[in-house]
């Protein structure tokens, strides 16, 4: 007893007394593998360890091996698991071959490292998600990419379901490693708990777990195996629901952790934003196309042998519509004498871009509705004026009406201006005349005036209607100079005898060259040309040049 | 060429009911709203019933500029005021005559209203 206590005292003397209660587990083992000292903290980890007992069987295998290696000369620090916790063991060698192992727990560091790695991976995935989704403004493509990425990073299989018709939804589905299938699916969203709400988008619903056994047959991909877990996550869009994401995992994979669910929501937010942006873009394109169809200048043809040709260039080259317009309404009225009159209209709505284009549309529609009155230009303009009078703004339109009729070999025009630039006529001699058609601009003043001028075009002669985008075009060799009416007269003089299309093209081309790269207003020209030669057929039955 | 479409509006209050704005530069699409803004502020801040718009230094007025002048006229009309377009360049007169807004924008004020304003 005395001996024993001496031994214990001896070891106490040998080692620091503070050791016993040191916060780090410490175990001292001699070269033979017998435990010499084990402190309180170490006893918690190795409850079976006792002084004098063997290290093997009481300490974890990795530590025992490290000790053997150490005795053999390899003096590295080692790390390993003890239960759920992980430790680094630092050896301190003694003179007598005894090794004191200090154990430092690194469970938190290891977990933090692991979390950091996961987080980096997820950030990289989200980055990939964003960049891949945002490169496409095609809604279908967005859904495909979302399904593919979800199946690659979040689950074994993924469904992306977009809001659709009543019983018919566009879906994209993908099994990990497989191809994306895009289809329209007639399913009842009520079959899947939470899907109807997620598709509605309101009220906002959280991700929802579904009992795998309750999943409808269509939700399970072929040869998928047993489903372990299913989660339905709404895809939030820009104020509108973009759809729902359904993730499926097989039984062998563990269920979604809390972290993974958060990650799935982050993924859903990005996918939803991209999909709704794509859909809004697609809708806008479709709306714009629809509007454009009515706002774009029409293709012009010959009417009764009379040539009509137009050119149009909007102020903002990125837009296809603007404030200038022209129309030709063939055979608008039949005059008392039985002649058929077409009505050509060219106008300029004050302003640029889409705003002007909308008013342009209104003007063109109103004029079309007033076609039966085309025999009375003044009355037509008065009615148009009444339709456009607006107490809020002073937006106006200037317009030229030209009633065109073929009379024998000639073309007779009745021209009326609503505050517009005077029409020009180029004779076969090259002489250019201004048509004295005057009148009030339309849409501002309660009363308007308008006088109609009559012009007769001999074969090959042209009447040109144009907007101030031509005469006020800024540019020229030095820049900053206005094209002006004189230049227009000169250009037109050089067009004597040309067909309508050539006149319109030439005037448009010269003005465009004048502008160069500079900014400009809308430009519109409309040429009306009396047919050359063909009148001979009508008169004498002889062919051209006979 | 310096910055295009420059428009300067120099405002002077002549007396309790009269203001004068010297407009110089181009009254066009990009600049017209500035003139309208100056007039709107003026009418909001002062009981002006006569606005003399000095156009002597207007280098160009396009159809949008004409729309601006019509809007200024309408603003003054709404408060029972009178617009005078002074020192009009020939090009501006041509635009007013072509669009038949010459009388509307420049006609001499009815004697009665003139009298009221002068008294």
From TrEMBL, chain B:
SUPFAM superfamilies: SpoIIaa-like
Domain annotation STAS: ranges: 21-119
Name of the protein described by the UniProt record: Anti-anti-sigma factor
Pfam families, sorted: STAS_2 (PF13466)
Listed InterPro entries: MlaB-like_STAS (IPR058548), STAS_dom (IPR002645), STAS_dom_sf (IPR036513)
CDD domains per UniProt: STAS_anti-anti-sigma_factors (cd07043)
